[in-house]
Amino acid sequence: MSAAGATRTGQDQSGQGFDLQTVESVHVWLLSLDEAAVSRVPAPDVWSPKQVLGHLVDSAANNHARWARMVTEDGLPFPTWDQKAWNAVQDWQGEPWTDIVALWAAYNRHLARFQTLLPDSALGHRARVGTLGGGEPMTLAELLAHYARHLHLHLGQIRERVVP
To answer: Residue 76's beta-bridge partner residues?
Structure first.
């Protein structure tokens, strides 16, 4: 696989990928989790697995907009978002687990397919994303790899928080 291909599928340097196969296997695992286990808030100011997955839905929405715009535009500024406020106002904790999982899976299936359609010519387009990357411009290829790292980081948090 070429370097562009590895980047296009969101594979980061650790080898953690983001592709349709990853989305499907994570989807099956998420559906196997018990509502009570995913609803448990481990400590004050620590998100439950439901809230973590809700955050990943928000991340998918933000990254979708970034990737789509970066295909045709270079040098864009993107804001970061107030993650705690978004999580609270959407009440991910009060949402049924199966609904959050369905939304996460559908959005990430789309992103997994979409990233394969990105033209090579756009992978070098740059954008500044708030403080991400130290506030320096990042290429679309770098944002794809960041999405994979971010996804796996938070899936790891869910794994840790559902263990009895």
So the answer is: 127
